[in-house]
Design brief:
Blueprint lengths: L6 H66 L5 H5 L9 H10 L2 E12 L2 E13 L12 E12 L1 E2 L10 E5 L2 E5 L12 H4 E5 L2
Antiparallel strand pairs: 1-2, 2-3, 3-7, 4-5, 5-6
């Protein structure tokens, strides 16, 4: 003799299915919202990194120009340039351009700073786009922000008793370069990357 399931059981489980489906749907939409926010933050960080590096690289180029001029003019302080001193203000236009290429804008900086004794520049950016429409209210007007710092690190060592006015042998990360102020042309200097590294601060 077979038994029949009461009709009331099937009717009572339907609201539970609907409720669970609604919860799962909301969870999926919330996860998507967090994924969109994370993507925006990553985009902002990439833009900040690029802007900070551009600022530091532009300053390094000016540092190389100053170093070449100091050696050529026979200045006694050209070792200071080699140590990364006498940095000029970073090129805000270069930082802004790299931020724009990453769909962001610079909202602070480039500001001069020091990290572990090395000079650098800090930049803060904001994305030009928003997180977008999600189940979380307010994300449609929310922009992501991020900041980054890039440092300029001298690569070269020289003898402590070196004479500023005579030929000096530089050791730059294992590479040897000779600088002779008495027979020097700015184009004799190696590439800027051989004398100074530019990298993001940890």
């Amino acid at each position: 003799m077979s038994s029949l399931r009461p009709r009331g059981d099937r009717g009572s489980t339907l609201p539970i299915y609907i409720w669970l489906t609604a919860i799962l749907l909301f969870a999926a939409l919330a996860f998507f919202a967090f994924a969109q926010a994370a993507s925006a933050r990553n985009g902002a960080q990439s833009a900040a990194d690029a802007a900070a590096l551009a600022a530091a690289q532009s300053s390094r180029d000016e540092l190389m120009d100053g170093l070449g001029k100091a050696i050529n003019d026979g200045d006694d302080d050209w070792f200071d340039w080699l140590d990364g001193q006498n940095l000029a203000d970073a090129d805000a236009q270069a930082a802004g351009q790299l931020a724009a290429e990453n769909d962001a804008e610079v909202i602070a900086g480039p500001d001069a700073t020091h990290v572990a004794g090395f000079p650098g520049y800090r930049v803060e950016v904001r994305t030009l786009y928003t997180v977008g429409d999600t189940v979380i209210p307010g994300t449609e007007t929310k922009h992501a922000t991020a900041h980054a710092t890039a440092v300029i690190q001298p690569r070269c060592d020289f003898p402590v008793d070196a004479d500023f006015k005579k030929a000096v042998q530089l050791t730059c990360d294992g590479q040897q370069f000779k600088v002779d102020p008495e027979d020097f042309h700015p184009e004799d200097l190696p590439d800027a990357s051989a004398l100074f590294s530019v990298h993001l601060a940890d």
